[in-house]
Amino acid sequence: MKKNSPATSSPSLAGSRRDFLGKSALAGLATAGATIGLTGCKEEAAPGKAAVPAKAADTGEHIKPGQLDTYYAFISAGHGGEVRVLGLPSGRTLKRIPVFNTDCMVGWGITNESKAIIGTKPDGSLQYTTGDTHHVHGSYKDGTYDSRWLFVNDKINARLARIRMDTMECDKITSLPNVMGFHGIFPDKRDPVDAAINYTTRVFCGTEFHMPLPNDGRDLDDPTKWGCLFTCVDAASMEVRWQCRIDGNMELVASSYDGKLAAATQYNTEGGADLAGMMSAERDACVFFNVARIEQAIKDGKATTIGSSKVPVVDGRKAANDNPATALTCYVPVGKNPHGVNASPDGKYFVCAGKLSPTATVIEVNKVLGWFGGDVKLPRDCVVAEPELGLGPLHTAFDGKGNAFTSLFLDSAVVKWNVDASIAQFKGDKAAKVVLDRIDVHYQPGHGYASMGETKEADGKYFNSGNKFSKDRFLPVGPLHCETEQLIDISGAKMSLMADHTAYPEPHDGIIVRRDVVKTRQIHTMTDFPNAVTPETAGIERKGNKVQVRLMSQAPAFSMPVIKIKVGDEVTLTLTNYDKVEDLTHGCAIPTYNINFIVNPQETKSVTFKADRAGAYWIYCTHFCHALHLEMRSRLLVEA
Ligand code: RUQ
Ligand code: CUA
Ligand code: CA
């Protein structure tokens, strides 16, 4: 187990902002009123430079002012559409990363660059302005996080987004064809065939809702003809590689440490179109995908396509896969209407939480591979334990010491149990002590995840219980309650509740990552932006009624005090932040024109708008940057 060493790439500490404000205020006052100087920037913070870390709190104690957290948590925001970054154990919100939502602080959904990532309609407006994020997972190398990317789903509009870990900004969004209710995701942890590829190259995506294939108006009155596709997306290009049609549906997704299997829980094996229909079967299933065989089948030309999509689709339905020697999928029966599926950090098991069954189902990875290889007779023979845990099991996390922690929605509790003991009990050992501890949470937990718990470096320190109801835990704020994220110390034999943290609805899954694993940069590289404004290109360029306004910012001024355009112009305003000082962000707002975005140090952003109202408009800086921040303005003069 790795020690929690202090980060070498942490942002420098509180106080540096105050320092640079003081110094640049002096410099700025000296040049106030003069034209902007572009070389005045002395204080440079190299990306990822080593900062002097404050003393890290490495116990479950209160983080004192000036102390840094020891872990990051990356959590979904549910139908808020964003991803959030917290520090743990303090629970402080460090960042909100806009993804499928729009965000007027950052300008996400306002700038041309963010609109290109989100996707636009022919008229330039956003294709979608909403999303529902559930599952955030990091890319892997050697079974643990490599700090390259985070991936997150959008359940509403069936999209997968990628976030760069160095800047913690979304850089790609991909739409999945012919799916609805895209819920679970998991990156692969290595390649199923090429042993040299020991890192994430694919992201697996499960689909919860079945629908007509293609969804063009056919089969509306006959849901028995509808179907669900499992989707594989290329992690680097973010293009959809392939899809696999299955029987039933998929909810949550997991991947094996050897890269060979992906798994998805199925609560609707019945293919039911209403509540009763989805609960009629005594058991449902966890479907396993043999990744190498699926990709070989596509190479062998065994795929078809659906509708206008060009993505190859293979048949993973039961009827086409009853011969284990050639099967692409294996349906392992599990408890009724299961929810989460999670891989144990030793790589040996998948644990499915029962939801409507008071059990978890433990499935051995080697036995599933054995079924595909002909050594294990029935899919159900892959089940090695089915411990009774309590009412409403939803998600399971691990401590890396052989113990599992399962959230119990109906019981409002988290139960700690031992995986080996559950296997012994399943084999008939009546003395096996499976359930080791139980703790009440407040109230009705959904997701639960442990520190480094989805990696081989699971360290058994913290468990976050994401509770769906807070009821009386916080001051009342009207009808909408926040959620309670409860931090539990799992390092001892007994679990102990450390803290209640509030969360604006509605986080689902998340991951807790040791802070030394995360490598960030606090300053962009100007040359990464092809449209960066330089002193040579700065100014106004007109081609007919298309006007390019190229602007630079350096505290406390924009490079042009006056910008003159005409009514009817189509204006593209590009702004490059020349400040290189860490934390020195500028904003750019244009009244009446509804424009608002920020540029971080050395970053370039642009907006395009139609100048449809004559008059004078003060372009002003929104982000407090300098003692003369309020004076940081330019006049946009729109001539009639
Ligand atoms: S799911 S807790 Cu996506 Cu469990 Cu919400
Ligand atoms: Cu620039 Cu405030
Ligand atoms: Ca069912």
Write the layout of secondary structure elements.
Layout: H1 16-31, E1 71-76, E2 83-88, E3 92-97, H2 112-118, E4 136-141, E5 144-154, E6 159-164, E7 169-175, E8 180-187, E9 202-209, E10 228-234, E11 240-246, E12 253-255, E13 261-266, H3 275-278, E14 284-290, H4 291-299, E15 313-315, E16 329-334, E17 341-343, E18 349-353, E19 360-364, H5 365-373, E20 383-385, E21 393-398, E22 403-408, E23 413-418, H6 419-426, E24 435-440, E25 445-450, E26 462-467, E27 483-489, E28 496-503, E29 510-514, E30 539-543, E31 546-554, E32 557-558, E33 562-566, E34 570-577, E35 586-590, E36 595-599, E37 604-610, E38 615-620, E39 633-639
Parallel strand pairs: 11-15, 31-34, 33-39
Antiparallel strand pairs: 1-2, 1-29, 2-3, 4-5, 5-6, 6-7, 8-9, 9-10, 10-11, 12-13, 13-14, 14-16, 17-18, 18-19, 19-20, 21-22, 22-23, 23-24, 25-26, 26-27, 27-28, 30-31, 31-32, 34-37, 35-36, 38-39
Bound molecules: (dicuprio-$l^{3}-sulfanyl)-sulfanyl-copper, dinuclear copper ion and calcium ion.
Subcellular location: Periplasm
GO molecular function: nitrous-oxide reductase activity
Pfam families: nos_propeller (PF18764), nos_propeller_2 (PF18793)
